[in-house]
């Protein structure tokens, strides 16, 4: 079912020590890959659409498809407006019926991030208090694009989330979830020295400071070694965002199919879906959210 109350599902994951993966999608085809595997492994479904993905898909179209998949499968379905960077984008997603919103003010100066995040939280709560709201503090490495970089792209320490600011931020904004910077980048860097290394101690310090008042979110989930994902979940990460690895799998298989002169859309798209399903299954199993329905 398309959830009315989305906070509860994150709380349950937090209490039980597993994470839910947000899979970024921009079409119904990609949603299909997420749903097929979630059904198979009995995991809750969490779709994400960035501003660009939402613009392409259509906010209302994404909501209606998410509702349909929820109805058909009986699985809990969440649709998150990922990295909404302005009040207008938040409003557009809420009006379309999104049941989860991420306001990203991380590029703003600290007090301005608090002010704009609080404005988004107040507005969302005045419309529907059941919507789960994410804020972001600290800077994730990269340009923001979920793509493969051949040059070295890293997140340096000056960008990491400060644990003391984190508690101040959540108390003053009232967000339910916090996206933190602990060494990841958006995208994958294939250059020597571009490997992603999570700062586990930083995750633990932030978790300790927040004392269960807020759910911790790891952005930039692509390219993070499996063992590190598992360790991050152990240390308290409850939501992990994955995009680039899905895009690489989907587009790579479609390219191959097109190179083999396939012209039937439901055939070359299906090749993309099947390849994307492998990534989805792998990530769900790492997060531990399988078997939770
Ligand atoms: P990746 O593209 O690195 O998986 O990051 C996705 C993300 O954080 C979306 O919010």
Indicate the topology.
Blueprint: H1 7-16, E1 20-24, H2 28-41, E2 45-49, H3 51-57, H4 59-73, E3 77-84, H5 87-96, E4 100-103, H6 110-127, E5 132-137, E6 148-149, H7 163-173, E7 177-180, E8 188-189, H8 200-210, E9 215-218, H9 226-234, E10 237-242, H10 244-259, H11 265-287
Parallel strand pairs: 1-2, 1-10, 2-3, 3-4, 4-5, 5-7, 6-8, 7-9, 9-10
Helix pairs in contact: 2-4, 2-11, 5-6, 7-8, 10-11
Residues 24, 82-83, 146, 186-187, 219-222, 241-244 line the site of 1,3-dihydroxyacetonephosphate.
Listing every helix as H and every strand as E from the N terminus to the C terminus, the arrangement reads HEHEHHEHEHEEHEEHEHEHH
What ligands does this structure carry? 1,3-dihydroxyacetonephosphate
Q: How many independent structural domains? A: 1
Can you tell me the CATH architecture?
A: Alpha-Beta Barrel
Note the total helix count. 11
Given the C-alpha coordinates, what overall shape results? Answer: globular
What structural class do the secondary elements suggest?
Answer: alpha/beta
| Major sheet: arrangement of strands | 1-2-3-4-5-7-9-10
Helix content: 40-55%
Could you state the CATH homologous superfamily? Aldolase class I
Which ranges are low-confidence, i.e. pLDDT below 50, for 5 or more consecutive residues? none
Q: What is the CATH level 1 assignment? A: Alpha Beta
How many beta-strand segments? 10
How many angstroms separate the termini? 12 Å
Beta-strand share of residues: 15-25%
CATH topology: TIM Barrel
Compute the average pLDDT.
97
Gyration radius, in Å: 18 Å
Biggest sheet descriptor: 8 strands, parallel, barrel
